[in-house]
Amino acid sequence: MFVYLSKKIAIPNNISLHCLSWNKEEGYIACGGADGLLKVLKLESNLSKDANIRGLAAPSNLSMNQTMEGHSGTVKVVTWNNHYQKLTTSDHKGLIIVWMLFKGQWFEEMINNRNKSVVRSMSWNADGQKICIAYEDGAVIVGSVDGNRIWGKELRNMLLSNVAWSPDSKIILFGTTNGELHIYDSLGNPIGKVELHCLVNVTGAVSISALEWYNGRMGYIEQDCPCLAVCFDNGRCQIMRNEADDRPVLVDATMQIVDAKWNETGSTLAIAGYQRSLTQDKDITVVQFFSAFGEPQHTLKVPGRSITSLDWEKASLRIALAVDSHIFFANIRPDYKWGFCSNAVIYTFMKPDRIDHTVVFWDWRNKEKYVKFVKQLLLVAAMDDHCCLATRSEEDIGQYAVVLCNTIGTPLDSKFIDIEPLYMTMTSTHVVVASHEAIYTWQYQTSRSLGLSHIVTSQQRKDGREKLIHIDDEKPHATKAEFLNFKAAQAPTQDPVCGIAASDRLVIAARESGTLHRYTFPHLELTHRYAVNCEPRHLSLNCNSTRLSIIDTTGILTFFDLDARVTDANGQQVIGEHLRFERKDVWNMKWASDNPELIAIMEKTRMYVFRGLDPEEPLQCSGYICQFKDLEIKSLLLDEVFKDPENPNPDDMIELEVKSLRDTRGLVQTVGLKDASQFVDDNPHPRLWRLLAEGSLGKLDLDIAEHAFVRCKDYQGIGLSKRVAQLGNEPMKQAEIAAYFRRFEEAERCYLEMDRRDLAIELRMKLGDWFRVVQLLKSGSGGSDDKQLIRAWNAIGDYYADRQKWSNAVTYYEKGDNQERLCECYYMLEDYEGMTSLMETLPDNHKMLPNMAKTFKMVGMCEQAVSASLKCNRVKEAIDTCVFLNEWNQAVDLAQQYNVKEIDSLLTKYASHLLEKDNTLQAIELYRKADRFASAAKLLVKIARQEAENGASPLQMKKLYVLAALLVEKHHQQVKQKSSKGSSRVDSYMYDDMSSEELRAIDQAWKGAEAYHFYLLALRQLYDGYVDAAMTTAENLSDYDDFIDPSKIYSLVALSAATNRAYSVCSRAFIKLESIETIKEEDRKAYSNLALEIFTRHEPRDQRRTGESLNRLSDEKQPVCLVTGRPVDEYQLWSCPTCKRCASAKEIRSRHYCPLCHTKI
């Protein structure tokens, strides 16, 4: 970072200031001093006429300067309540006043005077609800924002000097005049003391000068970041993570500390005080800036004898200093983590709710941005089309990663290194990283494109693409070892590296002593050492690597000529000269990428462009320089970007022109081409010649234009000049020139005025502006060219198709009769009806039909796919489509229609394959779709047999047999239809692979369904209590013992007969049970014992009240009703047309479906 003084405000009557505070919300500055002085100021930036002058470069004036009366003694303490816009002040007499803003003026709201002691410190908590007031005698008062006292306490034997709240308002720290730090909770209960490690081995009395605890409102720069600063008057400082941190950051500022403050983000601690000057033998006023980890960032010398206080503004871009009777303002130029490549700006910031860094890849020209989140990001560098991110590894302590990305944040490659990346820069082929001790280079891109051959492991180093040297090596050389020795590179050095610069030819490393090391690429060999009289902070090489620009720690810019040969004091010739050139307060610089003599620098809020050592007229600007090319400078107002980093504004990118470019443009426009040509001759640059050529073309001075194009090597421009010179018509020349300068509207207007609509159409066609082409074709009295109009319609369709606006594309493809693209759009829209209509309009054997058939096939539209295939005479593909989509019936029909014999063998082969894979159900479905119903029924009967053996439920068995029987019926109908049509090909082949037993089983499928139907009916009647009907139905099952286990049949008969007290029937059922040969002996014995037990109690005679005696166990056969299970007479029969089974006409009237096959009645 860099800090420089920018403004000074004097206090009237030379009254010395004692305290100062800057309101973080509204920007008010309160300052207090002797004789009761209390002023509130407000510094506001004025809007400049130039939109580019914004931020710190904008002029600022006091919009408020109010002197408030109320204190009679010296005002010692001022503090703001930022949330409620209240100001609290106290003087050396102990008077406390709370001020409030009313109608643009500050007025007293509350007054309190304890009249016992002086207030040494006051602090509002993070949310502004409470204030803690610490008196010197140990009294503490905690009050609310509305003036009520919450609690008060006397801390005995303690003289207080400082107070601070913790960010969560749960802890209060009290500092004493003897240098102790006590911890209390928010209710005033003591907790303990803070261990002060920074005072170890310190003798003598010390006191706390500043106690600052960052409130964390804007987040933290890192996880577990130090935020509590304790500064003592002897220069010792302790920065802690919390009040109990046993490993704090220790800092020795080597100065007498007066005050210290955190900036708004907690990243920088500013410490004000006095430092002894060794050269002047007196104390000088300084402000030192440290990072949260104690790293020194900058030292600012301030004029004056006594500095008493300081504070930051909200954006942390300015700091106010109370010095004697003046308020000094200093501008802060932070070291943002950012880079610029191509048209992309890469920058990082922290969100309060996240612990990782937010990295934004912002394409400012196209207004697009890509956001990535990176943990423990350290550095950012960019060049050409790549950027590089350096991060700290989370898993391995002491290991770091260097990640190569493109302009949208996509990682391309990465390397792991074991040195801490403190400095990083990029060239078009290399990444250069430096720690205090070593330099590491990585060739991330060669003449070949990045590919798999470039990917290596994190340890294996191939092809010498990575180099590592120690800064103290006298003769460093590139090793070709597969492993880089990072351990040797970490050896400590007495003269650390403090900066690096690199070009395609050189690497320059600067050391704190002022020594410069020059290394060559790509071997990284040390060729020269130079010495400069400063400590470099930033380095930069010009485009031909002949001159080095250096900004030292004090902000002084100097140049070093690397190739100059001079004679030293000893009379020896040496290479390298530190030029006698200095510029103060420089904080940014950029060499031109196309001219080694041009450099742009930022000096305070002015941008200077130097040609050699001569400056041009400065421009007001506060941006960071991104690019210097073609006499144009791109500068980014990063301060404005970081005000709302999630929504960057393209207006924050400023494009500035150097003076020679501005002067040339003025000469061309106002003076004349000859003078302008002479000026460009004296100040040659390709951009100036191009500007002169453009101006000459505009004035139709083709000779000067051609000469200028030759000087800037613009061969297209030379061709244009010659082409325009051959045109005899001046409007035609103006049109050609306007088109060259991309003033296409003007060129078209010229063509139309000359009645050359054809040239205007040709121009728009070259530009791809097909909408305008259509307008031009439809306008005019001569009609339009149909071919050109069709081409325009198709081009507009391509425009919408490229943007995936398929429905819009369809409209224009229809107008252009582009059937191929129209089919593609229908497919993308899934408009298969449109595709079908298009297919029907195509003639036979059209070249699109095969592809359309494939498209329909892939989306499962069999009928349309077959139609498309048949339309182009591809019968085989049509049949294959049916097979692929399992439409076997259609495949068989096509095979029969077109006499294709391979379908039967293919069907059989595929069915055998399914059966081998035990996919019987799929084989059944295959046969069913192919209209081979007998084969499907055969497999279903087989499944039914297997399920019966596995003990499947009767209902499932009935369903299987009904389905098989229905397939058999369809087969019979199919045979009848083919026989009636006289077809010579009857499906006898359906039975060729079946045995007689299988044929009989298929023919008896209805009987199997009937068996399980009556079995279920008997069970249902028995459970419903209709025992007589159950017994009658069960007796019918004796005809179905080849489908149902006889033991189940006669057990059901015996059970229902015994329940119905028909013991004669029951006795015959037991006789059948005991005579079954397949039952086990223990089951036979159990049946015998049960029969003995029953018929010992009951005689084997029917005891029913009706006296009926049914004997269905005999051989007599009668039709049985499907509804009741009882026999029916002939005249009562109702027969189902599908299953051909009967039922009582009386019982069937109340039903809508057949009880067996469920056919609708």
TrEMBL record:
It is found in: Cytoplasm, Cytoskeleton, Cilium axoneme; Cytoplasm, Cytoskeleton, Cilium basal body; Cytoplasm, Cytoskeleton, Microtubule organizing center, Centrosome. Residues 338-657 form the IFT121 second beta-propeller domain. SMART domains: WD40. Residues 1-333 form the IFT121/TULP4 N-terminal domain. InterPro entries: Beta-prop_IFT121_2nd, Beta-prop_IFT121_TULP_N, Ift122/121, TPR_IFT121, TPR_IFT80_172_dom, TPR_WDR35, WD40/YVTN_repeat-like_dom_sf, WD40_repeat_dom_sf. WD repeats lie at residues 68-99. As a component of the IFT complex A (IFT-A), a complex required for retrograde ciliary transport and entry into cilia of G protein-coupled receptors (GPCRs), it is involved in ciliogenesis and ciliary protein trafficking. May promote CASP3 activation and TNF-stimulated apoptosis. This is WD repeat-containing protein 35. It comes from Phallusia mammillata.
